[in-house]
Structure formats: C-alpha cells, structure tokens
C-alpha cells in the first residue's frame, strides 16, 4: 500500500487511556488509513519519530478563541502545545449569532475583522476564508442570545422573546453549533432564572447537543450552583459539562470534596463531564469585582455608573468593605498602561498614588472596561485533585495568542500558551495521573464529551490529527510576568493530514476545519 505520510518508530498512545502500543501509522489525505507493521509499505514522506511519543492531537475542551482565529490563523500558542481542536463559545459568550444590540466581549470587539458576520453560517464562512491551523467546534452563548434579543437589563425573557431565543438557538444548531453554553456569573445571565436555561437546554437535548456552564458561583455559592446545573440537566435532559471546575477563595477550598461528591452521585443518573486548567489563578475582566447591581445594562451603562460621582462613591464604599489583604492576590493583566501589565494591584496602586479600590476603579474607567484581571484564588492541592477526576478533561479557558501580530500586545494568563504542555509535563514527571490517562484527558475524553466524531483517537478511518513530541523536552515556557512564550518539545503537529508543525517549526500548511454538530 502507498501512503502520503508514514510515521514509524514512535511510542504510540492511541488516546483511549490504554498503555502504549508499538505500531506504524499510515496517512492518506486527511485520514488515518492503516495502523500496524507498515514496513513493506511505501510513502511519499516517512516521518521517523525516533522514540518520540505519538498520540492524537489535543482537544482544548474550553477555549475563547472564537474571533481570534480569524485574526491569527497560525494559532501559534495552541499549535505549540499540540492542540489541534478547540471548543469555543464558552461561558455564555460566542462569536455568533449576533442579534440586536448585543456587543461582543471587549477583547473581541476592539479588533478589526476583514468582513462582518452575524449568523453561525456566516461565521463559518469567515473561518473558512481565514484558513486557521486548527479545528473549531462552536457552542452558542446564552448571554449572546439573551442580550441580543432581551437586552442587558436584569430580567428573564418575555414569552415572545423566549420564542425568538429558541428559534435563534435552533437556527444556530442547524448551522453547525454543537450546543449551548451559559455564563451565569456574568450579566445578563446572572439575573436569569434557571427556567430560561432549561427551556433552551431542551432544544439542545432534542438536537443531540450538550449544555456547558460557567457556574453561577465558584466560591461561596459553589455547592448551590452545582445543584442548579444538575437540576437544569435533569429537567432538560441535556448532557452537562461544568466549565473550569474549581473552589475559588481560601474560605471555600474545603467545599471541593462535597462538590465532587455531588457530581459523582449525579453521574449515576445523568451524563456529566467537566474541564479544568492546571493553574491556581483565574482570569477574566477586572470589572468582575464590581457589585452585581452595578454590572447590568451593558458597557455604556456600567461606565456611566463609574463616572457618576454619587454612584461611583457607592461602588467605592462597597468595594472597600473587602477584608484586609483581599487585593494582594489580584494581578493586572491586559491594560493600556504598559507599565502595569503583570503587576499585582498593590504595586499598581502605589505607583498611581492611590489605595487599591481607587486604583481598580481608575483602571476599569480608563480602559473602558477592557482591563484584565488575574486572580490567585485557588488551592494547588485541589487543582490536582480535580484534574485526577475521571470525567475531567483539559480546557485552557484561554484564547489563542501568538508572540507576533495583532494578538501579541496584550497580557494574557499563561494558560493560553501552556495549559496542555504543563499538564503533560506533570504526567511525565509523575505528579498527576499516568501518562496514558493524561493523554486521554486531552484527546479521547473531550472528543466523547463534545461528540466530535472520528476525533481524539488514533484509529483507522479517523481524522489525521496527530502529534509527535519529545518527552524529555516538553515544557511550558510562559510565565505570569512574560506570558507570550511558546511551549517547547512539540516536534510535529499534523492537522487533517497537513504537516502544520514540522521539526518544531511552524509551516504555512493550515488544515483547520469547522467541526459542525453531528447527530
């Protein structure tokens, strides 16, 4: 038999969680054609893995690269980690559908795009035009739907608005979206009762999709929020994926055991998965610290409150009620002020000649809500405990970046560059689950959870998304202080049969595809 590409002499892990096997892999076009002893077969190109590890391409189960892939098709921060597929549209915010007065998140909105889009179908066209290096599967954000049809005020949809949301979700699923995501910690979803989510999740269940959720609370209300997510899944019938499972804030770390037990018990009745990144700091817009009442109404309304002297004073008073040392674990991420990027808030406050609360409000105001915040709020012991759960896959919770081009100027969380390589390194160093299980958590498990057909495994007839890496050289190089640094040790990345990373160097061969929902 003749192959386009043959991989030999590798330590092969097929993504199932089983131990390594010895075999050659033959690829024709975009698929794995044959596995086994292929020494007698010819090939246009033979890739000698030379005792490197061969496995399926990694699937980032939780990403926010929706619009960034249109701007930087190289997907460098993800490709160098071995990520060949991203699940986007998480935490209630998606690139499509764009209805009414909905405004995309500030870090997407402030970029320039070649062509506009509105529907999922139009977004798919833009994706195809851009020819990204990696695959994408898209969830529909509940906040995207709700804000576009109902606005940003803290209320549920009217019966007529619900009909419009249900129709918009149905259309998005028709056009290839794989499910619904909610961000119940963020407005306007934070004011929406579970009944609205249940109604939408029923559509998802009927269409064979899934429901993912950024819980309403990951701190004081963690246990109640897990109960709510399970209730939504049971009432709707939809498969449930809990996003970035964590117990945030030292006073809540002891709740993790109960949280995990709730999930384990519910898994005996319904399908539940989760994802997690291997860092103890979270990252979101700094304005997440504002009182909930001050966060409704959309961008203009929030800024108007901050800039109104009387309302500003009320917000300031509420933020000042935080206990001593509260702000010590907050780092400033992306901001227009270059000197403040990657610095802890007390340092920034000192340089501004302000106290921490005034510094927070100053940054949020000056950056027009575009300030990033990195919050060191999690236990490392709990992090590894979550990552060891058998239903937890790897999700970076980070948008892709590159050390060059339009996405190189901000200050992201290092998870955008290092989540999968950090976890892989930990497995190789025996600091977490065994290597075969770690690879499964980045390949076969997320493919199953998100119903990505013929992905996530090395198997004849499956997509030719493969990696070859040097187990001795795998490492994250990114840091909180200097995040824009590519991971090391990934030798070859093949996406749909195209050699995208070759001998550790990026190539112009981009094989990424939009992975539409499949029944």
What does this structure look like?
It is a single chain. With 519 residues, this protein is of the alpha/beta class. The protein folds into 3 domains: 2-55 and 486-506, Urease, subunit C, domain 1, CATH 2.30.40; 58-280 and 378-449, Metal-dependent hydrolases (TIM Barrel, Alpha-Beta Barrel); 285-376, no CATH class. It is 31% helix and 19% strand. The protein has helices at residues 68-71, 76-79, 106-109, 120-130, 142-150, 159-174, 194-206, 222-236, 256-267, 299-307, 309-319, 345-352, 356-366, 380-387, 415-428, 435-442, 444-449; strands at 2-8, 11-12, 24-28, 31-36, 42-48, 53-56, 58-60, 83-88, 135-141, 179-183, 210-214, 239-242, 272-276, 281-285, 330-332, 372-376, 392-394, 466-469, 490-495, 498-502, 505-506. The strands form 4 sheets. It has an 8-stranded parallel beta sheet. A 6-stranded mixed beta sheet has the order 2-6-18-19-20-21, with no helix packed on it. Strands 4-3-1-5 form a 4-stranded mixed beta sheet, with no helix packed on it. Helix 12 (345-352) packs across helix 13 and helix 15 runs antiparallel to helix 16 (435-442). It is globular, with a radius of gyration of 22 Å. The model has no long low-confidence stretch (mean pLDDT 96).
The CATH architecture of the largest domain: Alpha-Beta Barrel
What's the helical proportion of residues? 25-40%
Count of distinct strands: 21
**What's the structural domain tally?**
3
* Main beta-sheet strand count, sense and barrel state: 8 strands, parallel
CATH superfamily of the largest domain: Metal-dependent hydrolases
**Count of DSSP H/I helices:** 17
Strand order of the largest sheet: 7-8-9-10-11-12-13-17
Shape: globular
Structural class by helix and strand composition: alpha/beta
Low-confidence stretches: none
How much is the average pLDDT?
96
């Amino acid at each position: 038999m003749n192959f386009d590409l043959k991989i030999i002499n590798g330590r092969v892990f097929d993504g199932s969680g089983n131990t390594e096997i010895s075999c050659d892999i033959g690829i024709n076009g975009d698929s794995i054609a044959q596995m086994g002893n292929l020494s007698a077969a010819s090939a246009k190109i033979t890739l000698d893995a030379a005792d490197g590890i061969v496995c399926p391409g990694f699937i980032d189960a939780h990403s926010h690269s929706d619009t960034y892939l249109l701007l930087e098709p190289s997907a460098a921060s993800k490709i160098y980690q071995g990520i060949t597929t991203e699940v986007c549209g998480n935490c209630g915010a998606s690139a499509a559908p764009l209805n009414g007065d909905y405004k995309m998140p500030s870090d997407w909105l402030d970029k320039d795009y070649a062509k506009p889009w509105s529907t999922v179908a139009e977004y798919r066209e833009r994706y195809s035009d851009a020819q990204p290096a990696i695959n994408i599967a898209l969830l529909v954000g509940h906040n995207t739907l709700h804000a576009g049809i109902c606005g940003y005020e803290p209320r549920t949809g009217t019966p007529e608005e619900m009909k419009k949301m249900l129709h918009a979700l149905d259309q998005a699923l028709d056009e290839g979206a794989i499910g619904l995501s909610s961000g119940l910690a963020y407005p306007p979803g934070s004011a929406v009762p579970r009944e609205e989510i249940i109604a939408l999740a029923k559509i998802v269940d009927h269409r064979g999709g899934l429901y993912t959720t950024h819980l309403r609370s990951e701190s004081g209300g963690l246990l109640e929020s897990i109960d709510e997510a399970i209730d939504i899944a049971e009432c709707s019938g939809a498969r449930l994926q809990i996003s970035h499972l964590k117990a945030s804030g030292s006073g809540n770390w002891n709740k993790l055991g109960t949280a995990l037990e709730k999930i384990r018990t519910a898994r005996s009745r319904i399908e539940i998965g989760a994802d997690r990144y291997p860092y103890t700091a979270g990252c979101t817009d700094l304005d997440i610290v504002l009182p909930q009442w001050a966060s409704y109404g959309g961008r203009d309304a929030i800024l108007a409150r901050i800039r109104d002297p009387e309302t500003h004073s009320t917000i300031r008073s509420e933020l000042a009620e935080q206990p001593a040392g509260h702000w010590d674990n907050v780092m400033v991420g992306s901001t227009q002020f270059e000197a403040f990027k990657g610095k802890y808030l007390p340092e920034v406050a000192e340089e501004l000649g302000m106290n921490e609360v005034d510094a927070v409000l100053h940054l949020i105001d000056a950056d027009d809500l575009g300030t990033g915040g990195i919050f060191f709020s999690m236990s490392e012991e709990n992090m590894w405990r979550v990552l060891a759960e058998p239903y937890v896959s790897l999700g970076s919770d980070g948008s892709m970046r590159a050390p060059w081009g339009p996405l190189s100027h901000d200050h992201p969380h290092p998870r955008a560059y290092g989540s999968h390589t950090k976890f892989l390194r930990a497995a190789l160093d025996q600091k977490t689950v065994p290597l075969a299980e770690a690879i499964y958590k980045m390949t076969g498990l997320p493919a199953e959870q998100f119903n990505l057909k013929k992905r996530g495994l090395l198997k004849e007839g499956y997509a030719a998304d493969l990696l070859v890496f040097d187990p001795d050289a795998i490492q994250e190089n990114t840091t909180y202080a200097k995040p824009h640094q590519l991971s090391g040790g990934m030798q070859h990345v093949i996406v749909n049969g195209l050699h995208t990373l070759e001998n550790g160097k990026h190539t112009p061969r981009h094989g990424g595809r939009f992975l539409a929902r499949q029944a």
